[in-house]
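This section describes the prediction task in plain terms. A model, or a person checking by hand, is given the sequence of a single protein chain and must write out its three-dimensional structure as a string of tokens. No templates, partner chains or ligands are provided. The sample shown here is typical of the held-out split.
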Amino acid sequence: MFCRLNPESFFVRQNTWVKLCILIIGSVAALAVTVKILIVLLTLTLVYFLITPAIYRCLLQGIRMLLPFMAAYSLTAIILGETIDRVGVLLLRISILVFFVTYISSSFYISRFLEDTHSGKSSKQLKTAVFYAVATLTYIKKFMRYFSDTARNSIQNIADNQTITSKIIDAIHTNWEQRKEIETETEKTLARDYQKPAFLTKYNLGACIYLTLLILSLAV
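The expected answer:
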């Protein structure tokens, strides 16, 4: 399963939309800034993450998942004549992208997302969008749980690509058959009373300061 932070941690209690802005601006900065600014961005991000040290465990998990790709890309690029410096810079950019994705995924909770969208739920279009978003997230959660359980039950065969593919197909099929259950669960989730939290908090202040620094990195 994917790594997640404690529901009461600093990053989880930040506004969902501010974190989404951080993901977008941070991703653009990771791909667009110079190498010198990229190193500053990496240092800044690692310092920012010190607020919640538990996120480093999630970062290591994310990087570990990408190691096979990074190794394969590096070997192929060097064989094709690419310089080690250029390969290293690209891998650094990818690593920082992983940092931002991990920041969002590890601190995302459906309940917090619904609290942050509470004020706009009177809009029919937004209610529909929120319903499909929550239903999709519920499906993904059930899919990952089912796939993880079946993989663990036959761990000795998990290295077989055919076995992995069949388990993925089986997980998709099983969860599709549970679509009515997922729809009911989504409706129950949305039916709960969610109170929109205050925006002017230390959690959002920290996020806004970091977001401002990311924007400034693009202006340099």
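For orientation: Residues 154-162 have pLDDT under 50 and may be disordered.
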